[in-house]
Design a protein that fits this description.
Helices cover 29% and strands 33% of the residues. The protein is α+β, with helices and mostly antiparallel strands. The strands form two sheets. The protein has a four-stranded antiparallel sheet with strand order 2-1-3-6. A two-stranded antiparallel ribbon has the order 4-5.
């Protein structure tokens, strides 16, 4: 028999920061387009964006992520900010 643990750690288990992710609406010159990189790289790129582009960005990881007890297959705005709080140092 397997026991389940439902503490705070179960709401956001370890995140695989090396998985692929796409960050849409990333400015490059005079155009916005999709940047594909690691999840960690995408979140760090989002942190470097100006507030307008942060608000418009959409981050889509290769696989859904369990964050704060909810499974999410994409993140925008405050969702990316919440994900950024779990970035490795």
């Amino acid at each position: 028999m397997v026991e389940a643990t439902w503490g705070e750690g179960a709401k956001t288990p370890d995140i695989n920061w090396h998985t692929s992710a796409a960050l849409e609406n990333v400015p490059r010159g005079s155009e916005d387009f999709v940047e594909v990189t690691s999840l960690e790289g995408a979140v760090r790129a989002w942190l470097a964006l100006d507030p307008e582009h942060q608000a418009n960005a959409l981050l889509t990881p290769d696989k859904p992520i369990l964050l704060d007890g909810a499974i999410r297959d994409s993140f925008a705005g405050e969702g990316i900010s919440a994900l950024a709080e779990h970035l490795p140092l």
